[in-house]
Amino acid sequence: MAAPARALAPSPESSARALGAKQDARRDQLAESALETLGELGYARTSLREIAAKSPFSHGVVHYYFASKSELIAYCVRYYKARCVTRYDAIVADSSTAEELRAAFAAKLAETLRDEAPMHRLWYDLRTAAYFEPDLREAVVEIDAGLEAMIWRIIERYADLARARPSFDSPTTYAVLDGLFESALTQATLGDPAAAGQRLEASAAAVLPTLISLHP
Amino acid sequence: MAAPARALAPSPESSARALGAKQDARRDQLAESALETLGELGYARTSLREIAAKSPFSHGVVHYYFASKSELIAYCVRYYKARCVTRYDAIVADSSTAEELRAAFAAKLAETLRDEAPMHRLWYDLRTAAYFEPDLREAVVEIDAGLEAMIWRIIERYADLARARPSFDSPTTYAVLDGLFESALTQATLGDPAAAGQRLEASAAAVLPTLISLHP
DNA sequence: CGACGATCTTGACACTCGTCAAGACTTTGT
DNA sequence: ACAAAGTCTTGACGAGTGTCAAGATCGTCG
């Protein structure tokens, strides 16, 4: 017996800093195994033993690094967020015309639908799970706000390049594009993945112009 | 011990017809209790015992009328669908101008968001649960198609009244409006319900005109 | 090298779940 | 009114869960 799970104590300096770093590294490693499992099985059907099975460790280790399942999930969710919110920043920075941005954005949407479907499924699963599990709400609201801001940056840039202005406010614009993406993800999962990618690229490219209006 | 759960035998005529009707009535009653529970707790957290607790019966009865949990869920899902797919038909039939339809549709969206939030939460929960549970897929795909057709009828009528044509195809149009609704449902559940209703009505009214285009 | 602390494994606990069976109760048919 | 069929309750089973604690193992430092 030794260190408590999720020791919050500042720890006695010296080698403790490196020690804390090692613990964080292990936590990240477990979070990756957890995300892999969550992406495959979904939130409700993922058990700690299943997560451990996808890692090099036994199920006790999970409880050694995380005080509870809720804490593990919260850690995973924030770990996941860090990667996805900057997904389109390069497109915003690199595009020099509205048409270029429109095509690049639609293509990138289809690409991430193809390459990261399990993570997207997990995200929508977590968001609806938050309807029923208050523990998840804080993290979900935070991520959703991050995604909305990400979309808004794209639309503002798109409007700028087109010498136009966004037609709708940020939440509405995000809701429209999120609807297109979730619809495509559903088709990709329950139907034809290849067709879903093509349809998403086409529908996003088609809808994008309606999200901005020419100057008054 | 007696009748098998979910007896599929044609049954010996005479009084069997009425008997089957009684069983169907009980099944419907259990389905209503189940839907109430599912709407409150969500799919993953709803147990047969919890469903029975919300009914006048004990947990054994559920297994008496349904061979398995999957069968109960499937029955519930179709029972639920019968009610929701015709929700906007009156609006389509009664509106005589595009503006009237637009306002009535936006108002009805906000109304059902307010009055039937648990059922809507359940629907989105089931749809994402289907990502991970193949048993649910058939029913989910069927309901989703029904909802898409429902929306398409509205948009076609709206376009007719406005002497215009739908801007996008049926799946895209449905995805856009579904995105608006899910976004509002999330705000209603995780944030401010009253604000969510107002925002949904406003955003739907604002987006609707972009879903049709003037004649060529 | 020996000891100590950190890390990991193993096994157990209390609980919930879907499923099922035995029997009690109710309704129906004759 | 009696018997048969239908209906419902009760209690149990095995499997799976999160949680936790005791001990084995490893690395590191005096």
TrEMBL record, chains A, B:
InterPro entries given in the database record: Homeodomain-like_sf, HTH-type_TetR-like_transc_reg, HTH_TetR, Tet_transcr_reg_TetR-rel_C_sf
DNA-binding annotation, residue ranges on this chain: 47-66
Region of interest (Disordered), ranges: 1-20
Gene Ontology molecular-function annotations: DNA-binding transcription factor activity; transcription cis-regulatory region binding
One Pfam family this sequence matches: TetR_N
Alphabetical keyword list: DNA-binding, Transcription, Transcription regulation
Keyword Transcription: yes
Domain HTH tetR-type: 24-84
PANTHER family, A to Z: HTH-TYPE TRANSCRIPTIONAL REGULATOR BETI, HTH-TYPE TRANSCRIPTIONAL REGULATOR RUTR
Protein known as: TetR family transcriptional regulator
Organism in which the protein naturally occurs: Metallococcus carri
